[in-house]
Design goal:
Structural class of chain A: mainly alpha
Shape of chain B: globular
Number of strands of chain B: 0
Order of helices and strands of chain A: HHHHHHHHHHHHHH
Strand content of chain B: under 5%
Largest sheet of chain B: none
Number of helices of chain B: 16
Radius of gyration of chain A: 25 Å
Number of strands of chain A: 0
Distance between the termini of chain B: 32 Å
Distance between the termini of chain A: 33 Å
Oligomer: heterodimer
Helix content of chain B: over 70%
Strand content of chain A: under 5%
Shape of chain A: globular
Number of helices of chain A: 14
Chain lengths: ~300, ~300
Amino acid sequence: MEHAIKESRGDRLFTIINYSVLSLLLATVLFPLLHVLSASFSSPQAIISGRVWLFPVDFSLEGYKTVFNYGLVWSGYANSLFYAVVGTTINVILTIMAAYPLSRKDFMGRQFFMFLFVFTMLFNGGLIPTYLLVKQLGMLDTRWAMIIPGALAVFNVIITRTYFRTTISDELLEAAQIDGCRNLRFLWKIVVPLSGPIIAVMALFYAVGHWNSYFGALIYLRDQGLYPLQLILKNLLVQNEFDPTMMGDVEQMAQKAYLTQLLKYSLIVVASLPVLIIYPFVQKHFVKGVMIGSLKE
Amino acid sequence: MKSLWRRTFNNWELYALFALPLLYIIVFQYIPIYGIQIAFKQFSPVKGITGSPWIGFDHFIRFFESYEFWRVMKNTLELSLYHLIAGFPFPILLALSLNYVMNQRFKKFVQMVTYAPHFISAVVMVGIMLVALEPRGPINALLQAVGITPVHFMAEASWFKSIYVWSDIWQNIGYSCIIYLAALSGVSPSLHEAAVMDGASKLRRIWHIDLPGIMPVAIILLILSMGSILNAGFEKVLLMQTPLNMESAEVIDTYVYKVGLVSALPNYSYAAAIGLFKSVVAFILLITVNYTAKRIGNESLW
């Protein structure tokens, strides 16, 4: 359309500035990420002396060797995987169980229930009463504490309900009902298969949430064997609580000091690896999720 | 017409489905709300929530009169407002900027790269900040190269808020702009065509067409962020705290966590009172902002 009219000088200037600013932003976002990645593949000496910028210096796998010799990292990985898989499964099932009835116009009391749910987004008991509840339920220091207290996110229920409302037509339900199809069967045979995109989006939201969370573990868990990866990372990265006996066969003290610095870079990469690997595949789903979430009724 | 009871009975399966999520909400959301009463009690674990004696507003008064109150309130408000004001325009600018990129591959690439940091966990994010900002790290090397003395960023109270806010913008600018891009794609192309015909420059089109087009979304997001203004990214703040920057790093939520769960003598009631104070203020703020937005711009959450 606008190619028909010659661009004015002002507009060309705008375009040039626009591309420049975006390129600068691109560099600002990319540089720290590439720097960490390169540092993790460099030698400890090169990092300490500040010679690493955009590319690895004195290529070495020392950091990764140390990370994988660190027993807690492995158990953290296993635990996080468990919490993410089991937690997400429960999340998704509960979300559908809540969202589907709420999406139905013939579900009596749905406005009241909706209010009951949404109110918890605006006001909640807060940290201490929730902690006391979990304690009273006997979940402290068990795997349940990582899964049950956050089993349902009201925000996701709203997104899912809106999706059901806009994609599953009333006619479809009526036709099914005339054919004698009952509610549960309709949900299982028709609604769920038609809702692949929203189920994928929710699963992604929940799974990333599980993978990235540390605070629940911080307050509910004492047993290191149950710690998710993020909490172990917090102790190593943020609080520098390295246990020298777990660092493998490094002999000298000086060498260890060098290594802890390198270890941090490798840890950052190792911890983000699962997300980075699946990121290109799920990116468009997240975009879709945000868009669906932004639909106003 | 079928009676209400009949219709409800016919849909018993929906209620059966809904029972479990409802139970979850009641137990994990409403029981803690019921538990808030410990803020008005002298809680003792032996007697339990219901059995502990009432003491009225003592915990609140003690908090308001304590030395910590002003420091924690000031930090919370400063951090939140700084975050809100600095963080609000950037996703909008990015969305407007991307909207005028005609090269689709470049646009896709910028989007893919800028969305990515959003998926980094708070722990890893703070880890990256720690290695990047340490006295001998890359940022300081850069400063030294241009002749500025190195700064121990993470250990200085005066730097805390800026590091928090700008790292957050770095991490979330791309992801937050998605919703504005969606709003921009909803702007009718005929408006732009007409404007081009009238000889409007791109800046004019942004000002008169695009900005009004995304205003409703921006207002809704602003209302939402006002509601959580006192939450101030608690998990990241907690990770960024060091004994040296605590003066400006202690916010309400981290204070509640320390008083209630970390200290040698946890004071559940006192901590719950502080938490409740925060929730009530946040709730009032949200209602007020929503009401004002409704009056002025006809936009509201409900």
